[in-house]
Design a protein that fits this description.
The relative contact order is 0.12. It is built from ten helices and two strands. A two-stranded antiparallel sheet has the order 1-2. The termini are far apart. The chain has a single domain, classed as Alpha Horseshoe (Serine Threonine Protein Phosphatase 5, Tetratricopeptide repeat), CATH 1.25.40.10. It is mainly alpha-helical and about 260 residues long. A hairpin with a 2-residue loop joins strand 1 and strand 2.
């Protein structure tokens, strides 16, 4: 489990489409029936977290756990208004918590995550959120770099990888590499950290590096499956398994002739 008793949430991944920031549909599942089950579970957890938060809005744990639940449920939203409404609730809870406790790594982290969800619902306005997302992930990382299994470093790596470069935005391959590799150094046995690095190497056409990293991922996979168990982990395993298979297929494909 992550520090500060942070229950895991589906692996978050970033991408840009037509130069606009969006938080990718973080759950990649082959089975639509599974998605319905996971959506129902996320909705039930959101209701529970919301009830706890409304019962005591000054409790810091209630606040950031509600923000986390809002992010999780927004992963399964089917419309932009639904996703935006959930994200805005998480954002508001985190902003209030940060105002009371600026050193809450969880509040900064889930503020960034929910801002990412909100960015999914924007077009040109999405790029305006990039700097705030960057700032909040950095704040979370400075307070607790290992929070959510090195989540601040992991997500910064993806943010820098997929953002447009200067002067449009903050995208930087060198910076993306630093944060992605730093996440692996901080928490080497967490599958999402390794998987993101595999995918990044493939995106950068570094096939040998991707292959080496995939071999390490395969090696840690059995232990991770033993350690990360229960219903709350099922969406992550569905996502990771699909993405690992896709990465393996790309690595095994014959490289294009030059």
């Amino acid at each position: 489990m992550a520090t500060a008793n942070s229950k895991t949430r589906p692996a978050a991944r970033w991408k840009f489409a037509a130069g606009i920031l969006i938080l990718a549909a973080g759950i990649v599942l082959a089975d639509e029936a599974q998605r319905k089950i996971f959506t129902a579970r996320a909705g039930a957890e959101f209701q529970r977290a919301q009830a706890r938060f409304q019962a005591d809005t000054t409790n810091p744990t209630n606040a950031w756990q509600f923000a986390r639940a809002a992010f999780d449920f927004a992963e399964f939203a089917t419309t932009d208004p639904e996703r935006a409404a959930l994200a805005e609730q998480g954002i508001a809870a985190c902003r209030r918590l940060i105002a009371r406790d600026p050193k809450s790594a969880a509040a900064h982290y889930y503020l960034a995550m929910n801002l990412g969800q909100l960015a999914r619902t924007k077009f040109l306005g999405a790029l305006k959120l990039v700097k705030e997302i960057e700032r909040e992930f950095k704040a979370a990382g400075q307070l607790d770099a290992r929070f959510d299994y090195a989540g601040p470093e992991r997500n910064l790596g993806l943010l820098y990888r997929d953002a447009p470069g200067w002067p449009a935005s903050i995208g930087s391959k060198r910076t993306a590499r630093y944060y992605s590799e730093q996440a692996v150094k901080l928490v080497p046995d967490y599958p999402a950290n390794r998987l993101n690095l595999v995918e990044s190497y493939l995106q950068w056409n570094e096939r040998d590096a991707a292959k080496r990293e995939l071999q390490v991922l395969d090696a840690i996979w059995p232990a991770a499956q033993t350690n990360l168990t229960g219903e709350k982990w099922e969406p992550s395993w569905g996502d990771w398994s699909t993405r690992r298979n896709d990465a393996r297929q790309k690595i095994n494909e014959a490289p294009p002739r030059r």
